[in-house]
Design goal:
The protein is mostly helical. It folds into three domains: 368 residues, no CATH class; 33 residues; 42 residues. The protein contains 25 helices and two strands. Helix 2 packs antiparallel against helix 3, helix 2 packs antiparallel against helix 8 and helix 6 packs antiparallel against helix 9.
């Protein structure tokens, strides 16, 4: 009971702080305020170490959303993790995670960003391996090592920032935009953001991180870890726009969106489908960000956080009731047994698809219409719209498998909606998923703007959504085609369903050659030439010398007499020849 009260206290504190920060962000955006706070940590003679914090409407609003979602997740964990003996440790890890994110959000300084960035990486590793089994250890190692690449890039960016005499990047972005050093810093920051936000080729860790408890997945995949890279690039947006790196990022994020949308249609793990949908939305945010619309990326970041946290919480409630089974094929008819959870799940799914007047519609529709207005090549345009269709496709497939038909699991399973603590957290986020999009669009885009497009382009978004939905329905009906074990089909489903073999490339692909190289080095150097020319050969020679010396020492009288005889014979021969 003591631990459960800790959950409640933390929930209340985070919830009220979230409301206060949201009201502050409204005040800041109305009055166009930006607040810099400088805290002198150490002052010694002429040296002072100062920490700088940046408070503007963007950082305050993002913090309020992160705290709202984390408060709901902690309240939800009160029941979801009630069987865990170490729930206290779990809550502490979640709070550490959130505080690392807070530090990253309010930092205009690369060094303090690295503190928050590394804090996220370290605590996410602890949370992914929370269940202490071999699968979670492997997933944790993959997550930690791929994120280390981004940490190294950020460290190198810090080293290059020494050219400017300060690590407060926000002072130099505008007027050092075309500088060589700033271009290099921009490239390093983009690479760091790509690892954190799991863009190709660093995508494999994101579905693997599903080994963490479901409340953690709800937090990680909505507003904290994966959005850290997006938020960093929003702050560095001047360097990304109209640059070669921005164009490369546009291509890679488009491919990420396409790859994850396609992969989710061949997946049967409930949590993994939602994880791949997160990857798809991250690709969408990165694409619109690399085109220069950073406010739109931030808008979608916030709306996506609301319905994605709700999706994971509903998935957690379903898994909880299904006796910890995550297989879609064992579900069915859940809307009859769990009507409230199913309602929340369907609202979140519709918001993800961009159903008019739900949260996702306001940001996704605006993004796609801005893309239609932009000078964009056909390939990128295709990636945007086709991937949007795929989103509706896998969402409808998910609903078809889980909500309709008959229950396919063990008949002894008792499914119910009696977990009121979990439902309360889900209902709050459901309300936010309904009203959040319109509320944010009024706040962020206060000046109304009209987007005028030709008739067919205006209806393009609706058209791809309808086609995607129909495709999802027909794919769900004719699954036999894809479960056919003929070689071509099997290879296709393996290729698409395993994220274009990226998890294998990230693990076996990397480790195989390095281990082979290590074996060659050990064989030829450590146990080869260095052994022959070095220690082993030296040891053998010393053994031979010591044995010779030992023989001399043991037979010294015989040797002495033998040498005397030889000397006498040489002397006699010398005398004869004279």
């Amino acid at each position: 009971m003591k631990y459960l009260s800790i959950c409640l206290i933390n929930f209340m504190i985070l919830f009220f702080v979230s409301i206060i920060l949201f009201l502050c962000s409204l005040f800041f955006i109305m009055n166009e305020y930006v607040l810099f706070l400088e805290w002198e940590v150490v002052s010694l003679n002429s040296m002072s170490i100062v920490m700088t914090f940046l408070f503007d409407w963007m950082s305050l609003m993002f913090m309020s959303f992160v705290l709202l979602i984390s408060s709901m997740v902690i309240y939800y964990s009160k029941e979801y993790m009630s069987g865990d003996e170490n729930i206290n440790r779990f809550i502490m890890l979640v709070l550490l995670f959130v505080s690392s994110m807070m530090l990253l959000i309010i930092s205009p300084n690369l060094v303090s960003i690295l503190l928050g960035w590394d804090g996220l990486g370290l605590v996410s590793y602890c949370l992914v391996i929370y269940f202490n089994n071999i699968k979670s250890y492997n997933a944790g190692m993959l997550t930690a090592l791929l994120n280390r690449i981004g940490d190294v890039m950020l460290l190198m960016a810090i080293a290059w920032m020494l050219n400017y005499g300060s690590w407060n990047y926000i002072y130099y972005l505008e007027f050092m935009n075309n500088d060589y050093e700033m271009t290099l810093i921009g490239i390093l920051v983009v690479l760091a953001a790509m690892t954190k936000s799991a863009q190709i080729p660093f995508s494999s860790w994101l579905p693997a991180a599903m080994a963490a408890p479901t409340p953690v997945s709800a937090l990680v995949h909505s507003s904290t870890l994966v959005t850290a890279g997006i938020y960093l690039l929003i702050r560095f947006n001047i360097l990304v726009h109209n640059s070669m790196m921005g164009q490369l990022l546009l291509l890679l994020s488009g491919l990420t969106m396409f790859m994850s949308g396609l992969g989710a249609n061949f997946e049967f793990d409930l949590k993994k489908i939602i994880a791949l949908s997160t990857l798809s939305q991250l690709g969408l945010m990165m694409m619109i960000l690399s085109m220069g619309y950073y406010k739109l990326a931030f808008f979608h970041l916030l709306t996506h956080a609301l319905f994605k946290a709700l999706l994971f919480m509903c998935a957690g409630a379903i898994i909880h009731n299904m006796n910890n089974s995550q297989d879609l094929r064992l579900m069915g008819g859940l809307s009859l047994y769990m009507p409230l959870t199913s309602s929340c799940f369907n609202v979140a799914n519709l918001a993800l698809c961009g159903m008019p007047f739900l949260a996702g519609f306001y940001s996704k529709d605006l993004i796609l219409e801005m893309v239609s207005m932009s000078m964009m090549n056909m390939f990128i345009y295709f990636l945007f719209f086709f991937s949007t269709g795929l989103t509706v496709c896998y969402s409808l497939r998910l609903v078809y498998y889980s909500m309709t038909g008959d229950l396919n699991c063990n008949s002894l399973n008792v499914l119910n909606d009696e977990s009121w603590i979990m439902l309360k957290g889900m209902l709050v986020l459901m309300m936010m998923s309904i009203i959040g999009g319109s509320m944010l669009s009024w706040i962020i885009f206060m000046t109304p703007s009209t987007i005028i497009l030709p008739y067919y382009l205006k209806f393009m978004t609706l058209l791809v959504c309808v086609i995607g939905g129909l495709l999802g329905y027909f794919l769900s009906k004719i699954t036999l085609f894809f479960s056919n074990k003929s070689l071509n089909n099997y290879f296709f489903t393996m290729f698409v369903g395993s994220m274009w073999f990226m998890p294998y490339i990230s693990t076996y692909g990397v480790i195989n050659y390095s281990l082979k190289l290590g074996m060659l080095v050990v064989k030829n150097f450590d146990q080869g030439w260095s052994e022959f020319m070095g220690s082993q050969n030296l040891y053998k020679q010393l053994v031979i010398y010591s044995q010779s010396n030992y023989m001399l020492q043991n037979n010294n009288l015989k040797v002495y007499l033998l040498i005397f005889v030889l000397w006498f014979m040489i002397l006699m021969m010398f005398l004869i020849f004279l």
